[in-house]
Design goal:
Blueprint lengths: L2 E2 L4 E2 L4 E2 L4 E2 L4 E2 L4 E2 L4 E2 L4 E2 L3 E3 L4 E2 L4 E4 L12 E4 L4 E2 L4 E3 L7 E4 L4 E2 L4 E2 L4 E2 L4 E2 L4 E2 L4 E2 L4 E2 L4 E2 L4 E2 L4 E2 L13 E4 L4 E5 L1 H6 L4 H15 L5 H11 L4 H11 L8
Parallel strand pairs: 1-4, 2-5, 3-6, 4-7, 5-8, 6-9, 7-10, 8-11, 9-12, 10-13, 11-14, 12-15, 13-16, 14-17, 15-18, 16-19, 17-20, 18-21, 19-22, 20-23, 21-24, 22-25, 25-26
Antiparallel strand pairs: 26-27
Helix pairs in contact: 2-3
């Protein structure tokens, strides 16, 4: 049964599934669509062309679908799309894209902790964790199961690879490779995210192959191009190594090493 607190302001054109719960003083705009099983906390603001999937929990004071903080934005028709099973904590912000027809995306089962910021045109994968006060600039990509530590600023257009982990408080100016642990000033790869990989079912053989690949890329005398060529020659049929190589070769901002 739809449960809307009497102090909430829900536009008549908003589309809410029949079992959505909306807390006190929440505001939901006319172009918002909310799926089954969602819970919206007190003082949350959902506006813009925002579509929210099923089973999401959006905590107090979060703002989703507001115009982007981009001076070039002139009211273009753009969107926010959030998948299923996400937890969006207190005062997190997720902004509309700033380009006509484009979408800011959050996938499924991710955790965006308090005060985290997802700027325009970002793409967040599945199972991602953004800790408290992570700030993603525009057009950032965070791939599946990546973890970004608290109070971390991420430069625009940076990509953060799958199953990587970035320590709290470090500036991220370049792409962070898949499966990596990164930290320090300036940011550098400090090793393989072995514990995270084990927790996600990577067996010993898979982890061992990735360790050998990381030694070639980050601990040998080879430059990145030479290391990628070696990886392609030695591990051509390995899906994890292919993921790593494809990420590196697609980089436009450069790779954290």
């Amino acid at each position: 049964m739809l449960d809307i607190h009497p102090t909430a302001v829900v536009h008549a054109k908003a589309e809410l599934a029949s079992d959505v719960v909306v807390g006190p003083y929440a505001v939901i705009g006319p172009e918002v669509r909310i799926g089954r099983g969602c819970w919206i906390g007190a003082h949350a603001v959902l506006e813009g062309r925002t579509t929210i999937g099923q089973g999401n929990r959006i905590f107090h004071g979060a703002v989703i679908g507001a115009p982007p903080q981009d001076l070039k934005y002139r009211g273009e028709t753009s969107f926010v799309r959030i998948g299923d099973g996400n937890t969006i904590r207190e005062y997190a912000t997720i902004h509309l894209a700033c380009i006509e027809g484009e979408t800011t995306i959050v996938g499924d089962r991710s955790l965006l902790m308090a005060y985290s910021h997802v700027a325009h045109n970002c793409r967040i994968g599945n199972g991602v964790i953004l800790a408290n006060s992570v700030n993603l600039a525009g057009h950032v990509e965070v791939h599946d199961h990546a973890i970004v530590g608290g109070v971390t600023p991420v430069h625009q257009f940076v990509r953060i690879g799958t199953h990587s982990m970035i320590g709290g408080g470090y500036r991220v100016p370049k792409d962070v490779p898949p499966f990596a642990r990164a930290g320090g000033y300036p940011l550098r790869v400090v090793g393989l995210n072995s514990v995270g990989l084990e927790r996600h079912g990577f067996d010993e053989d898979r982890r061992a192959s990735l360790k050998r690949a990381f030694r070639l890329i980050f601990r040998s005398d080879l430059n990145v191009t030479q290391a990628v060529e070696r990886l392609q020659a030695e591990f051509g049929a390995d899906d994890d190594i292919r993921t790593l190589v494809d990420f590196i070769t697609a980089s436009t901002r450069g790779i954290t090493t």
